[in-house]
Automatic annotation (TrEMBL):
It comes from Massilia aurea. SUPFAM superfamilies: ATPase domain of HSP90 chaperone/DNA topoisomerase II/histidine kinase, CheY-like, Homodimeric domain of signal transducing histidine kinase. Keywords: Kinase, Phosphoprotein, Transferase. Residues 298-414 form the Response regulatory domain. This is histidine kinase.
Length: 425
């Protein structure tokens, strides 16, 4: 039997040393990988924390700016209710309304941009008539178009065309496109809003004969904070948010949006495509407005902002409602629990007790006898509304409120009380 010659001792030592060296290298690599993993986790946590702080800051910013906007908006509403207002007064009211509306839209766009970037936008979809969404968008921009003496041409088929989507968000898409068109179209220019069905898509176009877009700018018009060249006057300024919101909302609906322009000075056309749900030849039904009976409600207003309380009280009293005021949560709850009110309008951020706690305690005390409770708040995100309804509010309105909508809401509430204390306004 042949004998195996053992390996030289020095060769075995070399293999052993090589293995030790390789093991050390692997251990070192593993340590680096582990550290890199920890670093990545730490960076992700920091990014999430920064994003959360940004969203919290934007929400607080919106709240703090909406608070002063609310009494300004209501003061303007009261100017419009004065008997025989002069031409100058009407002009002043128009300016105030326009600027309040612009600031409110900027705040909404900022918050929407933050929610989209963090994936917090939720859609509440249902079958929607395209014509109604376009009409809502036109209502939003009509005053601006009229002021600039622009011609708005609307071409919408008589057929009932429906999509499956979120009505609030789609109206926002079309109003943003119309606002953008009006902004970049000169005084006396033309804007055309069209809708049609092509294949399985609903196609909506917004075309203007305004400034147009340069070829090198077109690819970036839907990018967040992107803006084309502007003059020093900045009369066509903005934050570069509106079109980014348009693209994101449309894509969340399974659609697409594009921009085209022959060049500077030759106008622009934006095209939105959305999946078609159905189309019927039945004419659109026109529902006549049914005026609500003029009921005099007993209202408790809980608002710590003195100016907002004063102006909202004046608006409500101008409709012959009886208004009692409280300026903190504890006093508001004590009054509300007397059962003397049909409606409670309550701010959320109150001294002494939050609006959430107030309405929870009120529901626990009066149960089914509790009045109709409306949250009035500078916090306007979806989760803020959900939290208010979960606490026991019947409705949630965001400052600055549309006064006509508020008055209609109050008018729709059945009377619960036979009498109430004298108005404190």
């Amino acid at each position: 039997m042949p004998m195996t010659t053992p390996a030289p001792l020095h060769d075995a030592d070399g293999v052993h040393d090589a293995l030790i060296e390789q093991n050390a290298i692997l251990c070192s690599a593993n340590q680096h990988l582990l550290l890199a993993t920890f670093d990545a986790e730490d960076l992700r946590a920091q990014a999430e924390a920064a994003n959360r702080r940004q969203n919290e800051f934007l929400a607080m910013l919106a709240h703090e700016l909406r608070n002063p906007l609310a009494p300004i908006s209501m003061a303007s509403a009261m100017l419009g209710r004065m008997p025989a207002p002069s031409t100058e007064l009407i002009h002043i009211k128009t300016i105030i309304d326009r600027q309040v509306g612009q600031l409110s839209r900027l705040l909404d766009d900022l918050l929407d941009a933050a929610r989209i970037s963090s994936g917090k936008i939720e859609l509440h979809k249902q079958a929607l008539l395209v014509a109604e969404q376009l009409a809502n968008a036109v209502d939003t921009v009509q005053a601006r178009v009229n002021e600039r003496r622009q011609q708005l041409i609307i071409e919408v088929p008589d057929r009932a065309i429906r999509v499956f989507g979120d009505g609030v968000r789609l109206a926002q898409v079309f109003s943003n496109l119309l606002v953008n068109a009006s902004k970049f179209t000169p005084i006396g220019g033309s804007i055309c809003l069209r809708a049609c069905v092509i294949g399985n898509d609903v196609v909506v176009t917004v075309e203007d004969d305004g400034d147009g877009i340069a070829a090198d700018v077109l690819p970036t018009v839907f990018t967040l904070f992107a803006q084309g060249p502007r003059t020093l006057a900045r009369s066509q300024g903005g934050l570069g948010i509106g079109l980014n919101i348009v693209r994101n909302v449309v894509e969340m609906h399974g659609g697409s949006v594009s921009a085209a322009s022959p060049g500077l000075g030759h106008g622009t056309i934006f095209t939105v495509r959305l999946p078609l749900l159905e189309v019927t030849d039945a004419p659109l039904a026109v529902v006549p407005d049914t005026p609500l009976p003029a009921l005099r409600h007993h209202i408790l207003l809980v608002e710590d902002n003195q100016d907002a309380s004063a102006m909202l009280g004046m608006v409500l009293c101008s409709e012959n409602h009886t208004v009692i005021k409280a300026f903190d949560g504890v006093a508001g709850l004590a009054l509300a629990c007397t059962g003397a009110f049909d409606v409670v309008l309550c701010d959320i951020g109150l001294p002494g007790m939050t609006g959430y706690d107030l309405v929870r305690s009120l529901r626990a005390t009066l149960a089914q006898a509790a009045p109709f409770c409306v949250a009035i708040s500078g916090y306007g995100q979806l989760e803020d509304r959900s939290r208010a309804l979960a606490a026991g509010f019947d409705e949630h309105l965001v400052k600055p409120m549309n006064i006509d909508n508020l008055l209609q809401l109050v008018a729709s509430v059945p009377l619960k009380t036979a009498h109430a204390p004298q108005s404190s306004v």
